[in-house]
Amino acid sequence: MSTKVWGDKPLYFKQPYRWLRYHAHVNPALFLSVALGVSAPVLLLLTPIRRKYIYADHAPIPNVYPLPDRPRDKSLTGFDDE
Predict the structure, then answer these.
(1) What pLDDT, in 10s, does the model give residues 24-67?
(2) For the chain, how many structural domains are there in total?
(3) What's the distance, Cα to Cα, between the start and end of the chain in Å?
């Protein structure tokens, strides 16, 4: 009985698609980490294109409530203003 799980190891230059499938099944963590690492520069290059042609960035969410630009009304009562 053979201890192989996924057949013979394919050659990279002769069968690149089969080579990728082999490593995706045999070493999934390594395969996915390399795939994410390769996709990061591609996504960085696509961001300016997305901003120019597809959609712009959203307006930033305010972090504080805007305060009125006037003096405080002294005639208020209640809520510990006395």
Answers:
(1) 888 899 999 999 999 999 888 888 888 889 888 889 998 998 88
(2) 1
(3) 89
Q: For the whole model, what pTM was predicted?
A: 0.47
Name the residue range of residue 40's domain.
Answer: 28-57
Structural domain includes residue 78: no
Rg (CA), the chain: 29
- Which residues, other chains included, contact 30 with Cβ-Cβ below 8 Å and sequence gap of 6+? 23
Tokens of 63: 């972090």
**Other Cβ atoms closer than 10 A to 53:** 7
Distance of alpha carbon 41 from alpha carbon 39, whole angstroms: 6
The answer to whether residue 41 is domain-embedded is: yes
Phi, psi of 79 (to 5 degrees): 55, 45
In a domain, 62, yes or no: no
